[in-house]
Amino acid sequence: MNWPEFSLHLSEQLGQSIAIETVHSVAGGDIHQAFQLHTDQGNFFLKLNQASLLPLFHTEAHSLTAIEQSSSIRCPKVINFGTFNNQAWLLLEFLSLSSKGDDFQRGRDLALMHHQIHNNSQPFGWFEDNYIGHTPQKNRWHSNWINFYAEQRLRPQLELSQLRGASSNLYQLGTQLIEALPFWFQDYQPEASLLHGDLWGGNSAFTQDGDAVIFDAASYYGDRETDIAMTELFGGFSSDFYNGYNDVFPLDPGYQQRKPLYNLYHILNHFNLFGGHYEQEALNIIQQLLAQT
Predict the structure, then answer these.
(1) 274-282 — which CB contacts under 8 Å span 24+ positions?
(2) What is the pLDDT along the chain (293 residues), one digit of tens a residue?
């Protein structure tokens, strides 16, 4: 990146002069390059990737803006996004993060976000398709959650798995699971909540003051249990977090039975992104779920 030229580009895009003084590479996940920019207008967080991936930044910006407007839990403010010299960029507020903070309050904050829009008049979906990692995520509006989860979540991942070389058994058993979905919703009718959408431990932290922050969102309106299930998939959240969540918005008693159903989506996506043992893990989950029916 030619940083002096990028300074001029940012100045044009933001409508104010901004001079980049120093640049430091920071951890940015598996998909994007990430940098802390020290400028004469303060510090910023910058993500970079090839220009063709601008839609990832475009949709992430919309997710973060929706979460910010919910006002119950903090996320980085979106400054702008665009392309420069064949690179896509997303400029965010820079937050100095820590792994230590008030996990009970983090749970409360997420519960407040989920509860703020939680009603049976809000359909399931989002105003645009977005991405889970760099896998396209369909978000066509549905009034019925089971149909949404079947057709916008599980089936696209199962179909993609066949293109990624998974066994036909995975697709066949996955299709059986889709047909059996009503079994897990006999006594539970989800209502739509604003979701983070990819809430594993690496996508949340705390400010230096101990306040919770979430980022790298893939938002939509869906069953709040999907966010909670994702927090348990790879760890990173303490019992205080779940106590705080339930203090505000208690989970349904059937959540534990639906948790593997919801995490199956992410395991399938991990297979489609990384291959390897995730295929067998997905098969194990599907077989265990089908054995309950």
Answers:
(1) 275/164, 275/165, 279/161, 279/166, 279/167, 279/170, 282/161, 282/170, 282/174
(2) 899 999 999 999 999 999 999 999 987 666 789 999 999 999 999 999 999 999 999 999 999 999 999 878 999 999 999 999 999 999 999 999 988 999 999 999 999 999 987 667 899 999 999 999 999 999 999 999 999 999 999 999 999 999 999 999 999 999 999 999 999 999 999 999 999 999 999 999 999 999 999 999 999 999 999 999 999 998 889 999 999 999 999 999 999 999 999 999 999 999 999 999 999 999 999 999 999 99
Put simply, whether the predicted model's pTM sits higher than 0.85 gets the answer yes
Catalytic annotation on 198?
yes
Q: What architecture is the 3-95 domain classified under in CATH?
A: 2-Layer Sandwich (3.30)
Three-state DSSP class for 122?
coil
Q: Where are the domains of the chain?
A: 3-95, 98-290
Q: Which is the catalytic residue, given 30, 109, 187, 198? A: 198
DSSP-assigned beta bridge partners for residue 142:
124
Task: Give me the CATH topology for the region 98-290.
Answer: Aminoglycoside 3'-phosphotransferase; Chain: A, domain 2 (3.90.1200)
- Of 205, 219, 207, 239, give the one whose Cα is nearest residue 113: 219
